[in-house]
Amino acid sequence: MSQDVYELMRRDHAFILAGIEQILEHTNGDTARRVKHFRDVKQTFDTLQNFEEQEFYPAARRATGLDAEIDDDMEALDEARGILTSMDGLSPESSEFMEAAQRLHANFRWHADHEERALWNQAKEKLPHETVQKLGDEYARRKGLPLT
Ligand SMILES: [Fe+2]
Questions:
Q1: By the 8 A CB rule, do 146 and 140 touch?
Q2: Origin, by domain of life (predicted)?
Q3: What residues have CB less than 8 Å from 129, skipping those under 6 apart?
Q4: Domains of the chain
Q5: pLDDT, tens digit (0-9, with 9 covering 90-100), for 119-138
Q6: Ligand 1 centroid – CA 111 distance (Å)
């Protein structure tokens, strides 16, 4: 029994979106909470982007041939990475930080919706069972989760 790679990725998509929503909700000068959520979002995003780009997309490309879809998903991740990097240089109390968080939310919601709808349906049909298991184990390992 392996970790379900789709469930792990879906959970991280949801965790990142919820974290950005928490940043956007703490508008009353609760900077410490914003900073905590920002740190959590960044850490989960790093693990997710590295895994998707290094492991999931190469396997999904081979199995589905959906190159244009995958390129769009990767481009959205690169944009999100750029926004996160720009937020690192901004004061979490600034309106620029909150505007960047708004952009990040729209960008990442697009990434998650598009990938889960367009790519995963095909990948679930076409990726060999053994590959799906290996991907689940690898993502669990990167996240420090138990393998069963
Ligand atoms: Fe993703």
A1: yes
A2: Bacteria
A3: none
A4: 5-143 (1.20.120)
A5: 999 999 999 999 999 999 99
A6: 6
